[in-house]
Amino acid sequence: MATIERLTDSTPPTTYDDGLRTPPRQRDPRTGPRIKRWVVGAALVAVTVVFTYPFIWLVSASLKPRSDVFDNKLIPETLTFQNYLEVWNEAPMALWLLNTVIVTVLATLAVTISSSLVAWGFAYFRFRGRNALFGLVLASMMVPGVATMIPVYLIWDSLGQVGTLTPLWAANLFASPFYVFLLRQFFLGLPRELFQAARVDGANNWQIFWHIALPLSRPALAVTAIFEFQAAWTDLMRPLIYLRDEDTFTVPRGLKSMLDQFGFGGEWHWELVVTASVITTVPMIIVFLIGQKQIIEGIATTGTKG
Q1: How distant, in Å, are the alpha carbons of 58, 80, 201, 272, 287 from that of 277?
Q2: Which residue did the predictor score with more confidence, 271 or 243?
Q3: E-strand stretches of the chain
Q4: Res 9 pLDDT > 80
Q5: Which residue among 53, 80, 107 closes a domain?
Q6: Whether 197 and 63 share a structural domain
Q7: I want to staple 100 with a disulfide (CB 3.0 to 4.6 A). Which of 34, 75, 250, 267 is the partner?
């Protein structure tokens, strides 16, 4: 026993890398994830500021008198709401908004219904040459719009529709290749057993599509509708080509006319231009806030389909 005690007493104390006899301080395992969250949060805040600053500046400029529009101060020194009253007197904003709503709603409904029908045909039915035909549909997306602009204009002119709102939305009755691809990928992920069971119960092709496929595809349909709503609401090219009368102007075309009148060649009423821009931007923000859940769900689920 004495020998064992001497051996024990002669054992040198444990030393650590720092030369001390105290054990090193253990690192908190939560530190790494916490730092990562802070970094990601700071990056998201920075990106949010970059993307929202132009709209914040626009709102601020709309609340300033003409002399202070470009002073680059987010908090106006002289706050005024007179611009929002004057813009309705200087331009037929209510009529332009009504025309835009009509075009946007019709374009959204037309492209959503037609694209879902075409996509359902490619996803559900099996026929010879299906993949080759679908490849041609996708290839049409590679054709630039300027290549078909003149032929399409001549078609609408021969139909006597130039100067009306019809060319702004009626082309959507023939579906959109991008939305066909998007919806087809979603339809391919639906279990075919549901359709086979409905077929056994006596449902026809239209009933299967309308009562089963479409209700299960609400997220993808919502993404299609919101994307097209945004595209139709902000479209300027087609109104510039087809609209001549101020009474038929949409909001983007009306803003262009206001810019020509009050900006480059007029009295430089930039406060009215930015105010009108705010009025036309707010509806799109509201639509996104209402449908953001559907947008996220639709994109996420569509990415996992097919």
Answers
A1: 8, 17, 54, 9, 16
A2: 243
A3: none
A4: no
A5: 80
A6: no
A7: 250
**Is there a single domain that holds both residue 72 and residue 98?**
no
**Model confidence at 75, in pLDDT bands (50, 70, 90)?**
confident
What range defines the domain where residue 40 resides?
A: 36-80
Tokens of 132: 């080759």
3-class DSSP string for 36-56? HHHHHHHHHHHHHHHHHHHHH
The answer to whether residue 162 scores a pLDDT higher than 90 is yes
Is the same domain home to 284 and 194? yes
Query: Residue 272's closest CA among 57, 52, 53, 69?
Result: 69
Q: In the chain, pLDDT over 90 holds for what percent of residues? A: 42
47 and 186 share one domain: no
Residues 113 and 56 occupy one common structural domain: no
Residues 171 and 243 in one domain: yes
Q: Is residue 98 within 8 Å of residue 280, measured between CB atoms?
A: no
Is there a domain that residue 6 lies in? no
| 153 vs 6: CA distance, rounded Å | 105
In order of 95, 125, 187, 189, 214, the CA distances from 196 in angstroms are 50, 12, 14, 15, 16
| Single-letter amino acid code for the residue at 285 | I
Residue 216's contacts (CB-CB under 8 Å, 6 or more residues apart) are: 190, 194
**Contact (CB, 8 A) for 91 and 156:** no
> Going along 114-224, which residue ranges are E strands?
none
- Total tally of structural domains belonging to the chain: 2
Domain boundary among 12, 46, 80: 80
Residues 232 and 282 in one domain: yes
> Would you say 65 and 44 are in contact if contact means Cβ atoms under 8 Å apart?
no
pLDDT, mean over the chain: 84
